[in-house]
Amino acid sequence: MADLAGLSPHRGRAPRRDGLLPKIVTTFRQGYGFKDLRADAVSGLTVAIVALPLAMALAIASGTGPEKGLVTVVVAGFLISALGGSRYQIGGPTGAFVVVVAHVIAQHGYDGLLLATLMAGLMLLVAGVLKVGTFMRYIPEPVVTGFTAGIAVIIFSSQVKDFFGLSIAHLPAEFLGQWEALLAGASSLSPVTTAVSAGALALILVLRKIAPKAPGFLIAVLLGAVLVTAFHLPVATIGSRFGALSAGLPAPAFPVVTLERLSDLLPSAITIAFLAGVESLLSAVVADGMTGGRHRPNAELVAQGVANTASALFGGLPATGAIARTATNIRAGARSPMSGVLHAVFVLAVMLVLAPFAVYIPLASLAAILMVVAWNMSEMDKMRHLMSAPMGDRILLLSTFFLTVVVDLTVAIGVGVVLAAVIFMHRMAEASSVAHLPDTDETDSRALLPPGVEAFDVSGPLFFGAAARLSEVLDQIGQPPRAFILRMEDVPLIDATGAGAIADFVRRCRNGGTRVILCGLRPQTARVLSQMGLKPEPPAILWVDSFEEALHASAADPATPSIA
What we know:
This protein is mainly α. It folds into 2 domains: 35-380, no CATH class; 433-555, STAS domain (Transcription Regulator spoIIAA, 2-Layer Sandwich), CATH 3.30.750. The chain has helices at residues 23-30, 34-61, 66-83, 98-129, 141-164, 175-184, 191-210, 216-230, 238-242, 259-291, 297-313, 323-331, 338-354, 363-378, 380-386, 391-406, 409-431, 468-476, 496-511, 523-531, 547-555; strands spanning 91-92, 320-321, 433-436, 453-459, 483-490, 515-519, 541-544. The strands form 2 sheets. A 5-stranded mixed beta sheet has the order 3-4-5-6-7, with helices on both faces. A two-stranded antiparallel ribbon has the order 1-2. Strand 4 (453-459), helix 18 and strand 5 form a beta-alpha-beta unit. Residues 1-18 and 559-564 have low confidence and may be disordered.
């Protein structure tokens, strides 16, 4: 019932969570009335007011014109809500894409970005159909937090120029190059631009304290435009840098496709797809936590794929689920995905009617907005919390953060995921052990073992990171016993390397004239051993259910055989 979030009770069987059915279809099946539409219209308008200045600011920060951000909100935002697997998801451009978009544009031009976004959309579409969304939740939190905080630092750095009105002809995309240029141009600081930026920043922060429901971003932009225009202040505006905005959507067009371009843009496309998938699912999880609902991760990936493909065809930017706007949507009383659909319609209406007035918006106000976005993205509370985690998590967090800022986002994600896997394998290997039975065990102590019988307790996952410990057992034993008992009740899983280690252990024991008795095998372990060719071969190899049976079998063993 929590999934219905105030709508009428579900009629019929609920679709599986990993299905591809859009939530908007479920909404209409459950019943959708005028009251629901009115609530969605109010929330959609609220989110549109937030999305308008933010979309333009993010587009400018990405190295392109403000109209690209608005196109993305209209096209991608509409499709993400219409086809997605979350009831409250709001899609559009986000800060996570600023770095990678600016990098792709700098290297391959805007047409290259469109092709990379198109490729990423197709990847997401395939991932959703193959139900990969179920597994994307396993990305470690230190990796996500590290590169998100790194992106926040880069966004902040990219806005220093417009915040202070510095006269810098070209600001490099790289973090270190940016600060070299910023320090070199520090003497060109504009007091008027700085005053406008600081005033907008202060206004946003004050409104968040005294009137948190007020559209602080929009108020700061409108007030800045009025002041700059009324007093003819020497401050750069959208009109002075980009010219007039087009009133409406451009005609769809296909980017130039060649095998060479596809190869060159593949890393960037993978990064865009990864960011879009992970951030959209994180946003859906946040929405679930706020409403008690459940999203469909694979339907969400399909929607992200379709939305990014369409955004590229209309000349827009990469898009994903926006956590802050989704939360705003919920707080504004949204009932269904129709709120997200209507938010895109409202933005389109503003583009058609008010586009000529956008030329008066000062870039300083947009820079102040992105400063706030960067601070929110940094998640300093979460960073401090993770710094109290085990050493491996701290290394993972700082490595991902440092590589994101100094090297490249693609490298940071790749290294972060690989490093997380290595740390996880190390921890699992540490949790695995092959040891003598404890002398303190009252019922299964070593005192119960018949003469000439050794017993070892194997615990934890027996995979390639821990398999070597099994071979060390025989190396530590001097005279081979007449029977070995391996207790494996506490082995939850085994892989091919672990099965190979067991097989090698059995082979060495047989060569030494020692019988092997495996007891307490779990179904998964027994199945893998059988598939790898290791099966019971009495009397040399026995499988028994309990330690008591193993003791009985070893006691009934004939005299110690000769050692080969």
